[in-house]
Design a protein that fits this description.
By secondary structure, the chain is mainly β. The protein has 2 domains: about 100 residues, Barwin-like endoglucanases (Beta Barrel); about 60 residues, no CATH class. The chain has a 6-stranded mixed barrel with strand order 1-10-7-9-8-11. A 3-stranded antiparallel beta sheet has the order 4-5-6, with helices on one face. The protein is globular. Strand 5 and strand 6 form a beta hairpin. The protein has 2 helices and 11 strands; from the N terminus they run E-E-E-H-E-E-E-E-E-H-E-E-E.
Length: about 180
């Protein structure tokens, strides 16, 4: 049940959970950057750590998850799948990070804006999005939605059609629902 008319001028971006196995390059030590009470390897691939710092979580080669605490600026480990800022599991092609809409707000994208391929836009428009995360980086614009597209499945993830940034999208927002 949507309760707003179409709202235009939105920026859409996507975020994902990087997978360590796709980052073979040089490693960087995280000594001194591990959250208290967490036991982590001394180093990870530098490019992977950079992505985790942007995205919030990454899947490790061991199969658990490396998290970045944006408030305390330290790394932690968890066996649970990545969670949003309200400790709820992130759901691919459903979870949205936004700073201006109440948690649980349902969103339908009715126009993706320019630069999004037809097939990907169709998927974005058919998805039942819900705000269940806060946008940590690059979300100064009040009309910014960061769409969660899941775990990285290939090396050149950022060059795929589903990794996009678009300005001029139109959305409809619904009533907030309780987060589970």
């Amino acid at each position: 049940q949507m309760h707003t008319g179409p709202q235009s001028g939105y920026t859409l971006t996507v975020y994902f959970t990087p997978s360590e196995r796709f980052y073979p390059g040089p490693r960087r030590s995280i000594r001194g950057q591990v959250c208290a009470g967490h036991n982590l390897p001394d180093s990870y691939p530098a490019a992977y750590l950079e992505r985790v710092g942007l995205e919030g979580f990454g899947k490790t080669a061991r199969g658990d998850y490396l998290g970045w605490d944006f408030d305390r600026h330290c790394y932690f480990t968890t066996s649970a799948s990545p969670v949003g800022s309200h400790e709820n599991a992130l759901v691919p092609w459903q979870s949205v990070a936004a700073n201006h809409l109440a948690p649980g707000t349902r969103i339908r994208v009715t126009d993706c804006g320019p630069g999004v391929s037809g097939a990907i836009c169709a998927r974005v428009k058919s998805a039942h999005w819900r705000v269940d995360d806060l946008c940590s980086i690059g979300c100064d614009d009040a009309k910014h939605l960061d769409l969660y597209i899941g775990e990285q499945t290939q090396a050149a993830f950022e060059s795929e059609d589903f990794y996009f940034a678009s300005k001029g999208a139109t959305i409809r927002a619904g009533m907030p629902e309780a987060l589970r």
